[in-house]
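Sequence, please.
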């Protein structure tokens, strides 16, 4: 799993470098774009979805906003919340990667046929859910542990 995770990280870093932004900014930009298809996106949405700190998300969003890749607007239902959207420039930047991503994904995912890919996606979703439960268990066990930190 570490080996696969490392390789996925390097692919993400490569796309980010091509865009001229940091890897975490690329991850947030693509996450906002994906989550927009499901509804309104707020910083807390990204914090929960990616399991990142609020401070890290806020800093990355600020940079993406300064670059004109993300737009912020007040939420009509709750003015204390800031709604995030990928700007036209952000969409154009991500769309410009499509030809490269298509070729890379053909190689990366070419080890699976369509049926295997469907199974893989199902397994990934299940691993995400079980990972959340495992993280909660780990947090609980660490808090109740008598093992002193190193």
């Amino acid at each position: 799993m570490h080996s696969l995770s490392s390789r996925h990280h390097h692919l993400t870093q490569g796309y980010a470098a091509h865009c001229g932004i940091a890897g975490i900014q690329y991850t947030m930009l693509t996450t906002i774009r994906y989550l927009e298809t499901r509804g309104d996106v707020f910083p807390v949405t990204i914090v929960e979805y990616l399991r990142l700190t609020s401070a890290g998300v806020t800093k990355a969003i600020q940079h993406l906003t300064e670059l004109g890749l993300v737009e912020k607007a007040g939420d009509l239902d709750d003015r204390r919340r800031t709604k995030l959207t990928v700007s036209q420039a952000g969409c154009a930047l991500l769309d410009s990667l499509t030809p490269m991503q298509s070729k890379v994904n053909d190689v990366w995912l070419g080890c699976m046929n369509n049926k295997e890919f469907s199974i893989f996606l199902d397994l990934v979703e299940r691993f995400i859910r079980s990972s959340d439960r495992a993280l909660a268990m780990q947090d609980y066990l660490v808090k109740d542990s008598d093992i002193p930190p190193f």
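The two ends are 25 Å apart (CA to CA).
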